[in-house]
Amino acid sequence: MTLRERLQDDTTAAMRSGDALRRDVLRMVQNSIYNTEKSKRITMSDDEVIGVLTREVKTRRESVDAFRKGGREDLVAKEEAEIAILADYLPQALGTDELNAMVAEAIEATGATSARDLGKVMGWISPRTRGRADGKVVAGLVAQALAQADLAAHGAGH
Q: Quick count: other Cβ atoms within 10 Å of Cβ 65?
């Protein structure tokens, strides 16, 4: 069963059970997928659908931050409930140890030696972490690892 089929089946199930929040969130995701496919004239793969889901989660996380700053805890709760629904369709999030191992692998695979190689490393690691880790967190870990490699290289030379 593809991810799109699962979304469709779960939308139907939510409609039957009267779960309005789940129904509305899943419909919105399906509309986003449909609109993307129509504009690009493609049929999305599961990986591309995960990209749409990830974007939707990211948008809601930004909304949560904004609502928290504005003191709107009622809206924070709704956004967080929507994030929880969407998270059911995303691959299992990577833990810190797994991310650090992937960063080390990416640096080795790309031959990166300094912070100037951040783009090259991110190009290698991003497709492998999409939907499983926040891009900002990954970029931070890569930058930190490259800075340490850079310091080690320059420290060894003196």
A: 12
**pLDDT score at 156:** 55
DSSP string, 110-143: HT--SGGGHHHHHHHHHHHHTTTS-HHHHHHHHH
Q: Classify residue 71 by its DSSP letter.
A: T
Residue 82 is which amino acid?
Answer: E
Residue type, 1: M
Cα angle, residue 91 at apex, residues 89 and 94 outer, rounded to 5° = 140
Q: What separation in angstroms does the CA of 63 have from each of 72, 73, 82?
A: 10, 11, 11
Quickly tell me which residue has 């931070």 as its tokens. Answer: 140
Q: How many whole angstroms separate alpha carbon 92 and alpha carbon 48?
A: 16
Whether the CB-CB separation of 122 and 139 falls below 8 Å is answered with yes
Could you read off the pLDDT of 43-102 as tens digits, one per residue?
Answer: 888 888 888 888 898 899 899 999 999 999 999 999 999 999 998 888 777 778 888 888
Query: Is this structure's pTM higher than 0.70?
Result: no
**Is 126 within 8 Å of 138 (Cβ atoms)?**
yes
